């Protein structure tokens, strides 16, 4: 290992090969603080050539590596395991915006760019990069691409895969593949780009990407609707889509218990209604004409929903400050649940038409498995993605509750499968769901995944133990 590390120092400079325990600590623990791996070193390249040099050394010395961006993942995909033989490849220094083409509506960026910085650079060019999620101030675009991240704008703009036109990738052998052409049409064989997006660094290292930009909307209007059931939320979704079309950019479902947690742990936040309601929907409309036009459309949708008895009440934000306050209700749910104590998370997708039925049935099944547990159900209803989380009963010790995780996961994931859904909608598989997925993917799918992995990474050096076991 020391000979390998000396060779890495020759590529990077000694100051960018971290080996002291104090320097390593921030790279080895997952975002939720539940798992800490081991590693002999963290390697911090500054450009694609250095990444290629490092991967050639890893191939030569048979040293496994774990690519890492902002380390904000939730499925143990960006931290090493306990074996202690894998180095961490941190891409944080590779954070340049290489080019912006407003006419082509594209931006070329390096993998270590913080998502929020990309959003700001697009805005400076009077353009929109629509990927938006809670960790946008610390997650990197390389990590977003590696997990095919979703977020709140998927309903209108799609997952990260749909927002990427080309990639630069370093293979497990240290070769550089570049398709940074910014083309929307390129029908010249296998789509190699899509192999690496969502692969969680198990096939190669994404070092740069060409991203799609959009014209900035002239107005964004936010509303919060109160209603009784998820079934009514689906009715509201159909009504809003019929009237708003693609201008409807967000449609988020939140249960009353979610907001009660927010109010408990973020006491500066207030309920915009006089009384509580079982369910809430946060809607956002991006309009290309004017705020007045957007507000008129929303008022029509809300008015129709009230007349038809779909919703009980609604408020439309009258200012940017009010809009941010409504979004904070949604964005603070995960942190509020963390403040409440340990919880069991599920990032699932269900056919949209069956979500209400899924929640009703699966809530009952989970209560049978873990009586008195509290359901924290929220998420991107417009694209079928729920964060179907479970908190312990009041007074139960965290350790006692987490001991039930495997049993609760089995109940939830079996129900997801029965409804034709997926046990990972936007977080990926990592190490946390690597074995779980073998229950739900067919033998043919698993065989094809292993065939691809073995072909591109025959020595199993790229993020070993993640996504699929070979």
From TrEMBL:
PROSITE patterns: FAD_PCMH. Keywords: FAD, Flavoprotein. The keyword Flavoprotein applies. Pfam families: FAD-oxidase_C, FAD_binding_4. Residues 35-216 form the FAD-binding PCMH-type domain. Gene3D superfamilies: 3.30.465.10, 3.30.70.2190, 3.30.70.2740, Uridine Diphospho-n-acetylenolpyruvylglucosamine Reductase, domain 2, Vanillyl-alcohol Oxidase, Chain A, domain 4. Belongs to the FAD-binding oxidoreductase/transferase type 4 family. This is FAD-binding oxidoreductase.
